[in-house]
Write a structure and sequence with these properties.
5 strands; alpha/beta; single chain
C-alpha cells in the first residue's frame, strides 16, 4: 500500500519513526515534513503538509495519508478542506478503527505531542486493517460528499447511494 505521511516540526520525529515501522510492514511510504527541526529550528506551517498529503490521497497517488502535528487538530481541519479527503483525528485504537469502519477515513490525523510512538503505530495499524462497513455508513459518507459539493445532504437517501 502507498502511504503518504505529513508532519510539521512537532510531528517530525514521530513521522520518521512511523515511516520506518510501515516500511518494515512492507508498505511504500513517502514522508512529507517540514524538515528536521534539529537542522532548521524554525517552525513550519502544518496546512502546507496537510494540503500536500491530502492532495496525494485525493488524486489517488497515495492510498492513505497520515498527518502528525502537535495536537493533530490543525492538520485535520486543513486536510478536510481538500475535496475528496475524509480526515479523522483519533486518539486511541478504537477511534482509529471507527474512523475507517464507519467514516471510511482516508487520512488519519494524530497528535505527536500527546501519543507515544507505540500507540501511534498501533492506531495506524488498527485503521489500516479495518474495513469500511458500508450500509448506513455509506449513506452518511455520501452525505458528507454532498456537503463537499455544496449540496444539501438531506437530498441523499438509500436509493441514491450505490451499494
Amino acid at each position: 500500500m502507498k502511504i503518504a505521511i505529513g508532519a510539521d516540526h512537532r510531528g517530525h520525529e514521530a513521522a520518521r519513526s512511523l515511516a520506518r515501522a510501515l516500511e518494515n510492514m512492507g508498505h511504500e511510504v513517502a514522508v512529507h515534513n517540514g524538515g528536521d527541526p534539529s537542522e532548521n529550528p524554525q517552525s513550519c506551517d502544518y496546512p502546507d503538509r496537510a494540503h500536500q498529503v491530502g492532495g496525494l490521497v485525493a488524486r489517488g497517488e497515495a492510498d492513505k495519508g497520515v498527518l502528525l502535528c502537535g495536537s493533530g487538530i490543525g492538520m485535520c481541519i486543513a486536510a478536510n478542506k481538500v475535496p475528496g479527503v475524509r480526515a479523522a483525528l483519533v486518539h486511541d485504537e478504537f477511534t482509529a478503527t471507527m474512523a475507517k469502519s464507519h467514516n471510511d477515513a482516508n487520512v488519519l490525523c494524530l497528535s505527536a505531542d500527546m501519543l507515544g510512538q507505540r500507540l501511534i503505530e498501533r492506531m495506524v495499524e488498527a485503521w489500516m486493517t479495518a474495513e469500511f462497513e458500508g450500509g448506513r455508513h455509506a449513506r452518511r459518507v455520501a452525505k458528507i460528499h454532498a456537503i463537499e459539493q455544496g449540496q444539501n445532504p438531506a437530498s441523499v437517501n438509500n436509493e441514491s447511494v450505490s451499494a
